[in-house]
Amino acid sequence: MDSVNSAAKTELRKTPLNALHRKLGAKMVNFGGWDMPVEYPSSGGLMAEHKAVRNGVGIFDVSHMGDIRIHTGKTSGGALAAVQHISMNDASKLAIGQAHYSAMLYPQGTFVDDVIVHRLGEDDYLLVINAGTREKDIEWVRQNTAGYDGVVEDLSDAYTQLAIQGPHAAEVLQRLTDANLSTIKNYWFTHGKVCGLPDRLIARTGYTGEDGFEIYIPSDAATSERVWNAVIEAGKEFGIVPCGLGARNTLRLEAKMALYEHEISDSINVFESGLDRYCKMEKGDFIGRAALAKASSAGLKRTLVGLETIERGIARDGYKVFDDAGEEIGVVTSGSPSPTLRKNIALAYVPPGFAAIGTIVSVEVRSQRIKAQVVPTPFYKRAKKAAPQAVGTA
Amino acid sequence: MAYPANFRYTKEHEWVNVEGGVATIGITDYAQSELGDVVFVELPKLGAKLEAGKSFGNVESVKAVSEIYAPAAGEVTGANEELAKTPELLNTDPHGKGWLIKVKLANAADVNSLMDSAAYEKYIAEKGKEASA
Q1: In CATH terms, is domain A66-156 a member of 3.30.830.10?
Q2: What does the pLDDT look like over A11-48, one tens digit per residue?
Q3: Which residue of A63, A277, A287, A341 lies most exposed, with the fewest beta carbons within 10 A?
């Protein structure tokens, strides 16, 4: 990951929970310029953390994520117009209290970043963005909304963001809040008291493919640690463990959720990534729309597929993909052993002719080529019962 | 976990135990704890020639691939076949059941230049300090 190396010489950024992670004995890594826990040996390590989230509950510090608020200026609707201009999904369809997955695009239809857009109020939006792209994203938002009557605020450092994820996440968090979590549908949110802190944003979102919540609390270390410890205490009977970026990655990969610089980047367009269901061409103009309209009629050069290795070996990020005849046809964007499926899985870009389920390709693992098969994605899908489901939202 | 006094150790965190001209080679407890859950081990074929300091295989954890380096020159006479099915032996018993290969050393005296357990323990203690600095 280039983003990991580029900041190696500079001072790493720390979340308000950094000291706590170190006290817990977490293995720390440089992730996009941030000093972050990759796994906690005290939780049993990556595999145990992954399983806790699939079967019980886990807590992640995701305070490195950025938050951009765009709220109304002098005229109502200014913030919405700004969001519509920079985000490919249709924010006019959001109710207050609802969120959706979207992306900000370059004019050529490739990715600035993927985002979750929350509608906080009448003309008030919160965009949650990635850590590694924070500065770039904020600059992008400011520049491209300058002509709109919306006020852009970078709230990234104002929040400690905790993700509580797993089939027991709702039960655990319910013990700490007066908000009725059973009424919050997937990709909706509310405000409520959490650990005595008033008016906290509580969203039923996550990056694990499991039911769960993301909560936003004040970013001072004392409050952050107090809430973290309260969640751990409330989750004890369900075997809650702290989880690091390692498990976050394997969980999101099983659920086929995109990671910036892997499945999406400034050189991959929306159709190639398969995220076009979140791209609403009919909503009116937005940055990237014109290029995408052209791209869709020109046909795809490559598409994202799921692979499972058939022969012994693990296909990893950046490994090359070949066809039967030995021609190089593509590249793996993310690959790992899947702790849930106990198979070696990967996502890869290949030409559409190789995208049919069951197609056999090979992946170059060091000096050998091992066979892999195109399989349906997501690799893992949770049984939908924990959260009441939203109707008619994408 | 204790580092056996009769083993020798490399800076790349392999151990070597020489008995009657045959060396058993593995990775240290420190190495396995840095790697995390080991899920895949790639070892050389019997008869393969090892060069001191050169990579002879790979250990993969869920999150990363790490090369393993030969502590000394020699010829591979055995490989731990259990690891194909139970690679986690590297995590649970790195200095015992998690051994990797057996090697007929070209020159048994070569291993004398490697660290003994006291030197290795000091070496990893220093590494620990660097990491938390």
Answers
A1: no
A2: 899 999 999 999 999 999 999 899 999 999 999 999 99
A3: A277
Number of H helices, E strands in chain B: 4, 9
- Of A221, A194, A156, whose CA–CA distance to A19 is shortest? A221
Arithmetic mean of pLDDT, A178-204: 98
Q: How confident is residue A393, by pLDDT bands cut at 50, 70 and 90?
A: very low
Tell me if A314 and B58 make a contact (CB, 8 A cut-off): no
**Closest listed residue to residue A289, CA positions, set A117, A136, A103:** A103
- Please give the structure tokens belonging to residue A370: 């091992």
How confident is the model at residue B131, as a pLDDT?
Answer: 61
Identify residue A385 by its one-letter amino acid code. K
Q: Could you tell me the residue ranges of all domains in chain A?
A: 66-156
> How confident is the model over B79-121, as pLDDT tens digits?
999 999 999 999 999 999 999 999 999 998 899 999 999 999 9
Cα–Cα nearest to A373, from A315, A334, A317, A318: A315
Which of B33, B39, B42 lies nearest to residue A41, judging by beta carbons? B33
* Residue numbers in B near A366 (CB within 8 A): 42, 58
Place of tokens 């709230």: A155
The CATH code for residues B8-132 is 2.40.50.100
Q: Which residues of B touch A243 (CB under 8 A)?
A: none
Domain boundaries, chain B: 8-132
Q: What are phi and psi of A182, to 5 degrees?
A: -65, -15
Contact B40 A39 (CB under 8 A): no
Which of A46, A249, A313 is nearest residue B37 as measured by Cβ atoms?
A46
Chain B nearest C-alpha distance from A392 (Å): 37
Q: Taking 60 as the threshold, does the pLDDT of residue B33 lie above it?
A: yes
Distance, in Å, from the CA atom of A302 to the CA atom of A375, rounded to the nearest integer, reads 16
pTM exceeds 0.90:
yes
